[in-house]
Amino acid sequence: MTSRPQTSGGRAYLAIPGPSVAPEAVLQAMHRPSPNIYEGELIDMMPALVSDLKYVARTDHQVAIYIGNGHAAWEAALANTIAEGETVLVPATGRFAHGWADMADGLGARTQILDFGKQSPWNIERIADALRADTGHQIKAVLAVHVDTSTSILNDVPALRAVLDDLGHPALLMADCIASLGCDRFEMDAWGVDVMVTGCQKGLMVPPGMSFVYFNDRAQAARAGMKRVSRYWDWQPRAHPDLFFQYFAGTAPTHHLYGLRTALDMIRAEGIENIWARHDRLARAIWAACDAWSTQGPLRMNVSDPAHRSRAVTSLRLDPPQASDLRRWVEGHLGLTLGIGLGMAEPGDPAWHGYLRFGHMGHVNGQMIMGLLGGVEAGLIALNIPHGQGALEAAAHAIAVT
Q1: Position 1 in a domain
Q2: pLDDT band for position 1 (cuts 50, 70, 90)
Q3: Is the dihedral of CA 71, 49, 240, 146 positive or negative?
Q4: Sign of the dihedral through C-alpha 201, 232, 57, 302
Q5: Final residue in a domain of this structure, among 205, 233, 268
Q6: In the structure, what pLDDT confidence band is assigned to residue 6 with cuts at 50, 70 and 90?
Q7: What is the share, in percent, of the chain residues with pLDDT greater than 70?
Q8: What's the domain range around 302?
Q9: Could you give the 3-state DSSP secondary structure of residue 378?
Q10: Residues 108 and 247 in one domain
Q11: Is the pTM of the predicted complex or chain greater than 0.85?
């Protein structure tokens, strides 16, 4: 039996791909009495907060705030743009593209899924073929997951925009950046993204509870053409409120807003370009360690080509049940929690125990990543899982020279 980590033995490290580590400053900002929701600082801070949300996404367009998780943002994006019976194209590289497609299906949309498996990024030519065949422009949107949190695949959003432009196809380009925003490079306006969805609990470093839908003028035109949008999901009053409560269609997520304000201050202070560089450096340290471990034994990264790997999450494979054994050992003995292999196999399938994930998003630095990798190496040794040598040296070198 694996023991649970003792709270008196040091701070536990949640190295899963969301919720990410919340900075102490964010938690302290949230630890306050409930504020006045009718006047005062909470109301006064909203314009700057919205401006800084746009800064992180590299957009001059609009953002709507929802009290909900990423699934809420999925539904809000669809509810404002896609009518019942309309078609969406979904290129899938993991569980979350299928999840967004299922959300569209539940709203009465027709879903056309192009499944590229769980180890490969989009095949842009196949997507182009599907769009080219749509001569009547029945496809109203392409639901594009930038980083699939289950597989850790990073997809090429600018290339998808280029295809739509080259074909003159009017479909909206909608991007899921729930895992990637504030970690992997993303530029909404420069990349021509019409709608982007994300959550607060990953790169934005705030405990779960808020999500965001960004939209440009093309998406707003689609919203204007909708026969109806429910009062709650309608992004129009949220993005252009006459009264404070309209930002949230009711009572504000008060303490989350204080936490978000502090997180955005931290992002501004570091600078989004520097944040992307930090995530790239730390991801390369993880990859270097995994490459070393993979020279002997069963451990493999799910994505072989570094160009298609996320800088926020790394999905890994071991021989089942070694992945589950490793996760349990490092949590029980070290207080280190690794991510399950979400969506890689069904929970009842023995293969489910052959997958795990490292989360390295948001509030992470070099010593945290070296601690993560050292903990994993200790687990590999303790469980007699064969692995190559030199992983920690390789990771240290990657951090030192990049």
Answers
A1: no
A2: very low
A3: negative
A4: positive
A5: 268
A6: low
A7: 98
A8: 272-401
A9: helix
A10: yes
A11: yes
